[in-house]
Structures are given as C-alpha cells and as structure tokens.
Amino acid sequence: MAKIISDVVCPFCGTLCDDLEVKVSDDGKEILEVYNACVIGTEKFLHSQAKDRLTVPMKQDEEGNWNEVSVDDAVEYTAQMLCNAKKPLMYGWSSTNCEAQSKGHEIAELVGGVVDNTATVCHGTTLIAVQDVGVPSCTLGEVKNRADRIVFWGCNPAHAHPRHMSRYSIFPRGFFTGKGHKARKMVVVDPRSTDTAKMADLHMQIEQGRDYELLSALRVAIRGNPLPETVAGIPRETIQDVAETLKSGRFVVIFFGMGVTQSLSKNHNIDIAIALTRDLNDYTKAAIMPMRGHYNVTGSGQVLGWQFGYPFCVDLSRGFARYNPGDSTSNDLLRRGEVDAVFVLGSDPGAHFPISSVKKIAQLPSVCVEPHYTPTTAVCKLHMPVAFVGVEEGGCAYRMDNVPIETRKVVEPPEGMLSDEEFLERVLERVKEIKGVA
C-alpha cells in the first residue's frame, strides 16, 4: 500500500517550502504523487524517477567517446586530477547539502584549489554590499506575520519562486496580517511587465540599468526633499507616492533579485538599497532580503563563511584563504587561463557561463557531479551520477533568509548510487593517501 510522507522540504529554490506531502510506493522506491509543491518543485521530485537517468559513471576517451567506468575509477580520476593540478577550480555547491559542501571544502584546502559557488554570477554583489554596509533583515516568518508593505525590485517571484507570495509575502494571513493581501500594498520595480508586476498595486517601470538613480530618488523623497520631474523614467509624483506608501506602513520589506545585482552599478545598487531600508527605519520598521535562487546557495555561503571567513570565490592555492571578487571568481580565472582543472558539483556552468569560459572548461581535465545529464556533462571528461539531495538524501540547507532547515529523504536512490557527501568522502580519503596526509 502506498504511504504519504508529510513535512517534506522542496529542494528547488531558496524559499525551501517545508509543507510538501509526497506519496511513495510501499517499497519506498517510487514517487507516485507530490502535493502542495509548485509545478517546478513537483517536477524536481518526479524527474528523479526518469527512466533514462544516468546511473553509472561515464568517462570520455581521447576520441570523444563516452564509456562506462566503475565508481572506484571515478574516485581515482577525480582525486588524481585534483592532486595533479596546480590550481583546480571547484565550482557549484548550491544544489547540495551543507554536509557535502563542508567535505568538498576540506578537499579544496588539501589540493590548493579555488572554491566558488553560483553567487559568483548572481548575488555575489549582494554579499559584497553586506560586507560593506551590513544589512537590516528579518525572516520570512516575520514577513508573513508582520509585513504590510512589500517591494519586489528586479525579481519575478511568480516564475522564479512560485510559492513565495502565497506562503510568505503577499497572500498569507499572519498573526498581525489577518486580512492577507487585502491589508498589504505591493510595489514592483521592473523594466518589464512581468506576471508579478501585473499583480502589483503599483508597477514602477524603470528604465533599464538605472536602479541606482531611482533608489537615490526614493531616499530623497522619503526625506521630503525636492525631486526633478522624472528619474529613471519614473514621474516625480509616482516616486513621492511610493515613498509615502512605504513610510505609512507598519513593516516594509524590500525583496530584490538579479535585476538589481547584475545591472549597472552592481554591488553599489545593493549598498544604496540597504541605505534606503535604513532611512525607512526612521519612520517605520523596514527590512531587506535577497531573492536567492538555488535552494542551498545561501548555505554554501554560510559554510564557506564559518570554514574560511568568506562567502564565495575563496582562493586556497597559497595554503590560506584569500578572497578577491573580480580576481578569484570563476569566470575571471577561467577566461585568464589561471586554473588547470575544473570540478563541478551542484550547478550547471555549461548552461549559464559565457561561452569563453565554457570553452576553457572543455579544454581542461574536468569532473561533473550531477544526478542527470546537463550541458556541463558535454564539456567535462567525467560525469559522476549521484543521489538527489532533498529527494533521495537528506541534509541541511539554508533558506533565503538564512534559516537552516533539515531536508528529508523520501525514496531510495538507484542501487549502488552514492550521495554527494559519500562520493566526496571517498575522494577525500584518496587525496589524503596521495598527499601522504594522516
């Protein structure tokens, strides 16, 4: 008889919804149905059951043909590749658990590698800004229970975080927000008319790349000082209306995404967004929070932080941790030809990096650790399949508000399939043998 597992955590996005129910077969090997998840979260669970899923390691020979190899061979190739490299890049880490991240960092320290996560191409600028000026933030629980003014700046949660608005930010009825969305005002700042923007009380259709100017104008308007007729394509009256709307709220939360972090001014956009949040705290309660993408990219920054003191692009090639965004970040290293091996886990740079970086990966000794085929597989020399974290393996993950949540195992992985942590543990043991470390 089928059974239902409740309180399952969704391993898709940084919202980490923890109210899923998964119906599994009585032998615990097959997922039959998924309840409460969004369409993307549901697909993540069901995709783990794909019939064409890779279950054995595959290695590319000199002619470019793929051949099956044993797990022992995959461990040996990975360990030798990392030990023989002078400066290996170990990239990804955002779609796995904190336990595996910690194990991978230990390997990186032994081989003198560079550890970088997907923040390098999304919210790395946020992390730099937080280091510059700090951050007045809160938890998603506080948003649900207290916030009555919500700003979505440069993000589209209707598509990227499908249950964010229904669970935390707009629609739920919290302890002090008993009327749900009827008691909230929603402002969206986006150059496009997105599905999120269409739901807003006010859509500020900003000119592309002029976020810094509009944020500055809002700071001016909040203080009641005069403004020019238009700023970043937004009329003065609209800016003043938004400023008054935010000041009149009991609890303001600004959520921002890659439309801010990767537009002109980069981390300085976030600096001034945080300054705007602090200004609002002179009139009401205000907080700001990044909309993190991968379900455990926040955890990757946390683990790197407590192991090495820095949240991404950590260079260990000299035997101690160095951090210099723009120098020790993945794309900069690849494009300058400064790394001689690439290890990818929990990400897909083959699909998201510039073609110049992808070409460099294709030319180097490389390993891709991933449950299924990805564009990165095509440019790597070895593909090591592993269990799905959050589906076939549990472990700790950090929600976008930096709250740690324990993910749950709901089904067994295919027979003989290692988890990320188990594979990294075996690689670590072999690296220690090669390096002669006790």
Automatic annotation (TrEMBL):
Keywords: Oxidoreductase. The lineage of its organism: Archaea, Methanobacteriati, Methanobacteriota, Stenosarchaea group, Methanomicrobia. GO terms for biological process: methanogenesis; respiratory electron transport chain. Signal peptide: none annotated. The keyword Oxidoreductase applies. InterPro entries: Formylmethanofuran_DH_bsu, Mopterin_OxRdtase, Prok_molybdopt-oxidoreductase. GO terms for cellular component: membrane. Residues 53-415 form the Molybdopterin oxidoreductase domain. GO terms for molecular function: formylmethanofuran dehydrogenase activity; NADH dehydrogenase activity. The keyword Oxidoreductase applies. NCBIfam families: one_C_dehyd_B. PANTHER family: FORMATE DEHYDROGENASE H, RESPIRATORY NITRATE REDUCTASE. This is Formylmethanofuran dehydrogenase subunit B.
